[in-house]
UniProtKB/TrEMBL annotation:
The keyword Disulfide bond does not apply. Residues 2-185 form the Glutamine amidotransferase type-2 domain. This is Asparagine synthetase [glutamine-hydrolyzing]. Pfam families: Asn_synthase, GATase_7. One of its GO terms (molecular function) is asparagine synthase (glutamine-hydrolyzing) activity. It comes from the Eukaryota. GO terms for biological process: asparagine biosynthetic process; response to stress. One of its GO terms (cellular component) is cytosol. The keyword Cell division does not apply. ATP binds at residues 231, 267, 341-342. Its EC number is 6.3.5.4. It comes from Prunus yedoensis var. nudiflora. Keywords: Amino-acid biosynthesis, Asparagine biosynthesis, ATP-binding, Glutamine amidotransferase, Ligase, Nucleotide-binding.
Length: 588
C-alpha cells in the first residue's frame, strides 16, 4: 500500500507550503518506503509515498497523461489494467504501472470511469486545464482514505489521519464507493450494486458458480512483480485462499520470477492450536511455512504503536490488529512486500457466531449487508493499516466486486445455520469447495468451526490486555468516563485505556468521530444485539460472549442426521469445537 497526500486550492503556492506538504507526506512514509514524489501546480500539491509492487523500475508517481495536463496520485492496485489499456488504443502510456490507466480513462470518459476499475484504490486526479479535481475510493474501502477542510478553503486528502489532522479544521473518513468532484463540491456514490439496497435476494445457490467466482478473484490478485505470500491462520477462509493460490500459482508471471512454491505466514502465542492447524494446512498444500510467535507482553508493548498506526480506539480492532502488526514486521523483514488475506468472508456469509440467532433469512441478509458496508471501519482498516505500517500490502479476494455480487445474490435461506440439514456457518462456501476428486482442503479443515480473530489468539491475550488496562485505569477514572469522553463513552477499563492513547495522538473532535461506536456482541452491529434479550446484558465484543448461545442454537435444533453434504462425524463434532482456545484466527 502506498501513501497519498493532496492539498488542493490552498491559496498559497509558497515554498513554505511546499515544505509543510513534504513534512506531512513523510508521516506516511511507512506506507511507501520505495520512493517519494511531489507535484505542484499553483496552489495544488499532490504527494506520494510509493510501495512498488507493479513495475518497480518505472512506475513512480505522480502519474500523467501524454501532455501532463492530467496528474494522478494513487494508492492501490488495478487488476484489470491490461484489459483497460486495450480499450485505450490511441493513448501512449509512460509506465507499466497498473495505475497508469486512470489519467487516460479520465480523458476518455470524464468522471464516469471509476466503476470500470476492478481493484482496490484511492486516488486524487488533478486536471490542470481548469484546476478541477476528483477523488475516489474503492467500493468497499479496502484502502484507507480521509478528507479534510482547512480554514483557508483548501481540501485535503490523505491515506491516514496523521497526514491531515493537524492542519484541517474538520476532517472525516472518505466514504467507500464514493467520488468527490470539485466542480460539484460534493460527494456522490459511484458504487451501486443490487445488494446495497438490502432487498432480500431470491437467487439459486450454485456451488460451482460460487467456487468459480472466488477462484477468479484469487487468481487476479496474483498480479505482482515482487515476492509475495499468503496469511494462513488454519481457519476456513485463509486456508481456501492459500489452497487456490497454491493450485494456480504455477505458470503465472509471479512464479516465473519468484518460484512456484508458495510461502505462507502465521502468528500466534506459542503452542496455540491454531498454529498447529495452520501448519497442517501448509503441509497439506506444500507451502514454505513461516510461523511467528509472540508473547502477551510483546503485544502489550506494541499497543501504543498499534493505535498510532491503526488510528482507532475500537477494542476489537485493536485486539486483532496487534498480532497482525507484529507479524507484518516479520514478513517484511523476509523481503516479502505483498500478502493475500481472508478478510470479508464472515460478513458476506454470516460467519460470525452470533448469526446463529438470526430470527429469519431477511434479518440474516440485512445484517450481512450492514456488516459489509461497515468493513472499512473494522477489518479493512485493520488489514490495511496493520500491514502498511511496515510497507506490506494486503490483498483481499473475498471483497472482489464480482464475487460479492455472486455471493450476495444467493437466497439467504441457503446461508442460514441448520444443523439438522448438516449446515454450519458459511455452509454455502464450504460446500462449494467440497471436491471429492480434487480436494482443496482436508474435510476437518473445510468444516472447521469459526474462531473469532482476537479470541482465537487466546483468551490469555485478551485477559492480559484487560489486566494491563486495569493497572492504568482506576475505578474513579471510570466514574467520570462520560464527562471526559462524552462521545463513544468507554464502558470498560480496556476501552478507556485505548481511548487515552488515541486522544494523545489524535486529540481533535473530528478524529474521535471517525471511530464507530454503539453496542456490539461478538462483532455484531447494534441492530443485531436485539436478536437476543440476553445479549444486552453482556456486550462483550469477543466470541466468548456468544459461545454458549451458539452452542445452544445447535442443541435446540433437531438431532444430527447423516448427510451427503457433510460427513456425520463432522456434524457430531461441531458443538464440541471450542471458541475459547489459545490459538490465532486473525483471518479465519
Amino acid at each position: 500500500m502506498c501513501g497519498i497526500l493532496a492539498v488542493l486550492g490552498c491559496s498559497d503556492d509558497s515554498q513554505a507550503k511546499r515544505v509543510r506538504v513534504l513534512e506531512l507526506s513523510r508521516r506516511l512514509k511507512h506506507r511507501g518506503p520505495d520512493w517519494s514524489g511531489l507535484y505542484q501546480h499553483g496552489d495544488c500539491f499532490l504527494a506520494h509515498q510509493r510501495l512498488a509492487i507493479i513495475d518497480p523500475a518505472s512506475g513512480d508517481q505522480p502519474l500523467y497523461n501524454e501532455d501532463k495536463s492530467i496528474v494522478v496520485t494513487v494508492n492501490g492496485e488495478i487488476y484489470n489494467h491490461e484489459e483497460l489499456r486495450k480499450r485505450l488504443p490511441n493513448h501512449k502510456f509512460r509506465t507499466g504501472s497498473d495505475c497508469d490507466v486512470i489519467a487516460h480513462l479520465y480523458e476518455e470518459y470524464g468522471e464516469n470511469f471509476v466503476d470500470m476499475l476492478d481493484g482496490m484504490f484511492s486516488f486524487v486526479l488533478l486536471d490542470t486545464r481548469d484546476n478541477s479535481f476528483i477523488v475516489a475510493r474503492d467500493a468497499i474501502g479496502i484502502t484507507s482514505l480521509y478528507i479534510g477542510w482547512s480554514l483557508d478553503g483548501s481540501v485535503w486528502i490523505a491515506s491516514e489521519l496523521k497526514g491531515l489532522n493537524d492542519d484541517c479544521e474538520h476532517f472525516e473518513s472518505f466514504p467507500p464507493g464514493h467520488l468527490y468532484s470539485s466542480k460539484e463540491g460534493a460527494l456522490k456514490r459511484w458504487y451501486n450494486p443490487t445488494w446495497f439496497s438490502e432487498a432480500v435476494p431470491s437467487g439459486p445457490y450454485d456451488p460451482l458458480a460460487l467456487r468459480s467466482a472466488f477462484e477468479t478473484a484469487v487468481i487476479k490478485r496474483l498480479m505482482t512483480d515482487v515476492p509475495f505470500g499468503v496469511l494462513l491462520s488454519g481457519g476456513l477462509d485463509s486456508s481456501l485462499v492459500a489452497s487456490i493460490t497454491a493450485r494456480h500459482l504455477a505458470g503465472t508471471k509471479a512464479a516465473k520470477q519468484w518460484g512456484a512454491q508458495l510461502h505462507s505466514f502465521c502468528v500466534g502465542l506459542e503452542g496455540s492450536p491454531d498454529l498447529k492447524a495452520a501448519k497442517e494446512v501448509a503441509d497439506y498444500l506444500g507451502t514454505v511455512h513461516h510461523e511467528f510467535h509472540f508473547t502477551v507482553q510483546d503485544g502489550i508493548d506494541a499497543i501504543e504503536d498499534v493505535i498510532y498506526h491503526i488510528e482507532t480506539y475500537d477494542v476489537t480492532t485493536i485486539r486483532a490488529s496487534t498480532p497482525m502488526f507484529l507479524m507484518s514486521r516479520k514478513i517484511k523483514s523476509l523481503g516479502v512486500k505483498m500478502v493475500i488475506s481472508g478478510e470479508g468472508s464472515d460478513e458476506i456469509f454470516g460467519g460470525y457466531l452470533y448469526f446463529h440467532k438470526a430470527p429469519n433469512k431477511e434479518e440474516f441478509h440485512r445484517e450481512t449487508c450492514r456488516k459489509i458496508k461497515a468493513l472499512h471501519q473494522y477489518d479493512c482498516l485493520r488489514a490495511n493499516k496493520s500491514t502498511s505500517a511496515w510497507g506490506l500490502e494486503a490483498r483481499v479476494p473475498f471483497l472482489d466486486k464480482d464475487f460479492i455480487n455472486v455471493a450476495m445474490a444467493i437466497d439467504p435461506e441457503f446461508k442460514l445455520i441448520k444443523k439438522d440439514q448438516g449446515r454450519i456457518e458459511k455452509w454455502v462456501l464450504r460446500k462449494a469447495f467440497d471436491d471429492e476428486e480434487h480436494p482443496y482442503l482436508p474435510k476437518h479443515i473445510l468444516y472447521r468451526q469459526k474462531e473469532q480473530f482476537s479470541d482465537g489468539v487466546g483468551y490469555s491475550w485478551i485477559d492480559g490486555l484487560k489486566s494491563h488496562a486495569a493497572l492504568h485505569v482506576t475505578d474513579k477514572m471510570m466514574l467520570n468516563a462520560a464527562r471526559i469522553f462524552p462521545h463513544n463513552t468507554p464502558t470498560t477499563k480496556e476501552a478507556y485505556y485505548y481511548r487515552m492513547i488515541f486522544e494523545r495522538f489524535f486529540p481533535q473532535n473530528s478524529a474521535r468521530n471517525t471511530v464507530p461506536g454503539g453496542p456490539s456482541v461478538a462483532c455484531s452491529t447494534a441492530t443485531a444485539v436485539a436478536w437476543d434479550a440476553e445479549w444486552s446484558k453482556n456486550l462483550d465484543p469477543s466470541g466468548r460472549a456468544i459461545f454458549e448461545v451458539h452452542k445452544q442454537a445447535y442443541d435446540k435444533q433437531a438431532a444430527p442426521v447423516t448427510s451427503s453434504i457433510v460427513p456425520p462425524e463432522i456434524i457430531d463434532n461441531v458443538p464440541q469445537m471450542k471458541v475459547s482456545t489459545p490459538g490465532v484466527a486473525i483471518l479465519s
